[in-house]
Write a structure and sequence with these properties.
683 residues, 19% strand
Length: 683
């Protein structure tokens, strides 16, 4: 039987470049301090402030998850100089044996059999920066592990001798300066990670920026893998991985709370250790209270800064920029009263319509200046109805004068029915200009019912006609939502739009803004399978050319591919094949995750912005279409309709579709298989 601490050597691997080995040593009493018959299968980071060691018994009949947490952060079974030890889950053994194994592991940790301090040094120190002895002990602990750091190790050798800063200006350049020279932007790699920048996290377009939180971005020096860490002041983050005085370091992680990749957890641990060595009771942290107080909103301020932002307008349109891309579009929200009471919308129960006039304009000017310095080239103007803002023409003047080449507007567009305003507006827009105009029916009766506003259809049509008359017809983008009140007019409306030369139509399903069946969503949404069947049936009543044009618009509104697959497999037109998703698109309203909502799995979301409450799809693990599915459903939808219609698609069904395609190229699944094959190749 192999045993930790009894003459064996075990290598723990999670991903390349991180290897943790356990060595063998005996305790002072001469007896083994290891655990006979157990070995470590894997190591992962865990929230809050812990590392998970997943142990398995050699006979394969028992397992246990042992946590080593940062000292003093939570209750534990045994406190050691290298971290507080406890256990979270186990199988094949009872509670008493689980405690016995955990205590044996803690003894082995103290004896040096598991070199946890090499990879997770922050566990050995508490968050109290007034405890100078803890800092000195940490400085001694990290010295033997410095060769493991790679290129940045040379900078860490002098960390104990450098003067401790007395002030941390909590903005991007200040944070970067605080971490230097051990960790420098675009500098030497630490544990294979290169520090790429500091920036404000994305927030909902109506939520103020949180200047007490910043993102730290790292990339692997040998791959496109990225790690995003959150540095927060005075926060109580449930995703905290380490704490140091007023500072809290978290990890942006979408999975379960105890499955953080070991190489990301090790990087985060060394950063917490550096923060602890840098900090003292005398450290003063200065946090901005307004955007104008920041010396920069990102560091370095460059056009290829690595960021991820997802923005959505009121109708659910999404613009995503991720990875090594140009900076995202600047999202400007102006929230004057729209004058409508749409049947699907409860946004005004969250956001009080306001028009602060010059105050809003001054805020916009600051944002425009900061964005141009970062190299942003597009502005997205949205809000409850930005075109009704009292300073909107001055805002557009500022956008043009600042040199932004592109502007996209999301509005009810009803104000553009006014000739004088429309012409003044068009005179100011940049050359690249688009406007998304909501249209909810073929008739005035239906559109006005959906908007809850008599006369709305007449004004929207007048605005569209005026834009065409003034030479801006190519800028028009129609946006629509499928609801109970307009489903019967969707296909006729699409046919009419095509006849009028409209080439861009975005269709969406509504979403609930409140996690309750009292939300207006319940009175407007239609069961997805029934909705798609109704729309496909209507397509069969119009000319084939019109139907082929409208099909991808309709099916593209459905984010769950199983719904389209079932409709197609029942012999209808190629519903999924006509608009096979290139990737899994999130449900509208879930682009921002919030800790106030919890998935059915129990995993808290990340970020502090508004997001729609969701539950996990129960079929994710056994559905062949999962790679291109959001894998979740609105909780209100699940409560109101249930989830029976979302049936898993078995891989064998896909092969049958492929076989059927060989027999006839006219099969409804023909288009589906060609798109699906490449998406599932790696599954």
């Amino acid at each position: 039987m192999r045993a930790i601490g009894s003459g064996s050597r075990h290598v723990l691997r999670s991903r390349p470049k991180v290897t943790i080995s356990t060595t063998t040593r005996s305790g002072d009493d001469g007896e083994s301090s290891g655990i006979a018959g157990w070995h470590i299968e894997r190591v992962t980071g865990a929230f809050p402030t812990a590392v998970s060691f997943w142990l398995a018994r050699e006979d394969g009949d028992a397992k246990i998850q042992i946590l080593v947490g940062q000292r003093g952060e939570a209750e534990c079974l045994k406190a050691t100089p290298l971290g507080d030890v406890s256990y979270r889950q186990f199988s094949g053994i009872g509670e008493r044996e689980a405690a016995k194994v955990t205590l044996a592991f803690a003894n082995g940790l103290e004896a040096g059999n598991v070199p946890v301090a090499r990879y997770f040094p922050h566990l050995s120190t508490g968050a109290d920066v007034a405890d100078d002895q803890s800092r000195l002990r940490l400085e001694r602990i990290i010295q033997p592990a410095i060769p493991l750091l790679g290129d940045a190790g040379s900078q860490f050798r002098e960390v104990a001798t450098r003067a401790k800063p007395t002030t941390l200006i909590f903005d991007p350049p200040g944070i970067a300066e605080f971490l230097e020279p051990e960790i420098a932007v675009d500098g030497m790699a630490i544990l294979g990670w290169v520090f790429r920048g500091v920036y404000l996290p994305s927030v909902a377009r109506r939520e103020s920026a949180d200047f007490s939180t910043f993102m730290l971005e790292f990339t692997r020096d040998d791959s496109e893998q990225a790690a995003r860490l959150t540095l927060k002041v005075d926060g109580n983050d449930t995703k905290a991985f380490g704490r140091c005085g007023r500072l809290c370091l978290g990890i942006a992680h979408d999975g379960e709370v105890d499955t953080v990749p070991v190489e990301v957890a090790s990087l985060a641990s060394w950063i917490v250790a550096l923060l602890r060595i840098r900090s003292s009771a005398e450290l003063d942290i200065e946090v901005a209270t307004a955007l104008t107080d920041l010396r920069a909103i990102s560091y370095p301020a460059r056009t290829d800064a690595i960021e991820t932002q997802i923005e959505s307008d009121e109708s659910g349109d999404i613009a995503t920029v991720t990875g090594n891309a140009k900076p995202p579009a600047l999202n400007l929200a102006l929230d004057p009263e729209c004058g409508q009471r749409c049947v699907f919308c409860s946004v005004k129960s969250y956001v009080t319509p306001t028009d602060a006039g010059d105050t809003d304009l001054n805020d916009v000017l600051v944002q425009l200046d900061q964005a141009r310095q970062r190299g942003v080239g597009e502005v997205r103007l949205n809000g409850i109805d930005p075109l009704r803002h009292s300073r909107v023409l001055e805002v557009v003047d500022a956008i043009r004068d600042a040199g932004f080449p592109a502007l996209t507007v999301f509005s009810t567009a009803r104000r553009l029915a006014e000739d004088d305003f429309r012409k003044a507006f068009l005179d100011r827009v940049p050359r690249q200009f688009e406007i998304f105009i909501p249209l909810y029916g073929l008739s005035a009766e239906v559109h006005d019912i959906v908007t809850g506003t008599p006369g709305a259809y007449r004004e929207v049509q007048s605005a569209i006609d005026g834009l065409r008359k003034d030479g801006a017809g190519d800028a028009i983008r129609i946006s629509t939502i499928f609801v109970q009140q307009n489903v019967h007019e969707i296909v006729p409306m699409l046919r009419k739009l095509r006849s009028e030369g409209v080439h861009h139509v975005d269709a969406h399903l509504p979403y609930p803004m409140r996690p309750t069946t009292r939300d207006p969503y319940v009175d407007s949404a239609v069961r997805e399978a029934d909705l798609l069947d109704r729309l496909l049936a209507d397509l069969e009543t119009i000319p084939e050319d019109d139907g082929q044009w409208a099909l991808p618009i309709i099916t593209g509104a459905f984010r769950h591919p199983c719904i389209a697959w079932r409709a197609e497999s029942r012999g209808r037109v190629p519903a999924l094949g006509a608009a096979f998703p290139e990737r899994a698109f999130p449900l509208a309203g879930t682009e921002y995750r919030s800790d106030q909502f919890v998935h059915a799995s129990g995993t808290a979301g990340e970020g502090g912005a508004f997001a729609v409450a969701v539950v996990d799809c129960p079929h994710t693990d056994r559905c062949a279409l999962a790679p291109v599915c959001p894998r979740e459903h609105y909780s209100v939808y699940a409560e109101h309709y249930g989830l029976e219609e979302f049936e898993p698609v078995h891989p064998s069904e896909l092969y049958q579709a492929k076989s059927h395609r060989r027999q006839t190229d006219d099969s409804p699944v023909a288009n589906l298989w060609s798109g699906l094959r490449s998406k599932l190749r790696g599954r």
